[in-house]
From TrEMBL:
TM segment ranges: none
Residue ranges of every copy of the VOC domain listed in the record: 6-117
Pfam families (UniProt xref): Glyoxalase (PF00903)
Domain of life: Bacteria
Name listed for the protein in its UniProt record: Phage portal protein
SUPFAM superfamilies for this protein: Glyoxalase/Bleomycin resistance protein/Dihydroxybiphenyl dioxygenase
Length: 118
């Protein structure tokens, strides 16, 4: 069993070379606040209440898309043990300060991130 606490963020994708337009749309047109920083893969992070929206340029919408919800867990090691027991492949990505994380995909290719704040 994976003990989920809450959704941390949702990542959406935009076409290549549209980053500036996306930043303007979300921060100027919709008046959301940008979370400044050097984010993984050059993503734009936007604050939406207590949830973050991550925006990433992606070439096309392949089956291995980077779009995903991120779920905060109480014990990432226990969650990984559960996934391994169920023969679910665990993937890793770049490191983020203050967070341990991993990814997995459901049988249809949907990507999920599990995060434990440290």
């Amino acid at each position: 069993m994976i003990n989920i606490e809450r959704i941390d963020h949702v990542l959406i994708t935009i076409p290549l070379n549209t980053r500036a337009d996306a930043r303007r749309f979300y921060t100027e047109k919709l008046a959301f606040s940008e979370i400044l920083g050097m984010h993984p893969r050059g993503a734009i992070w936007i604050q939406l209440g207590d949830i973050e929206l991550h925006i990433l340029e992606e070439d096309g919408h392949q089956n291995a898309s980077g779009r995903h919800p991120a779920l905060v867990v109480k014990d990432l090691e226990a969650a990984k043990e559960f996934l391994q027991k169920e023969n679910i492949d665990i993937q890793y990505s770049s490191k983020i300060v203050g967070r341990d994380r991993c990814f997995f995909r459901d049988p249809w290719g949907n990507r999920f991130e599990l995060i434990e704040f440290i």
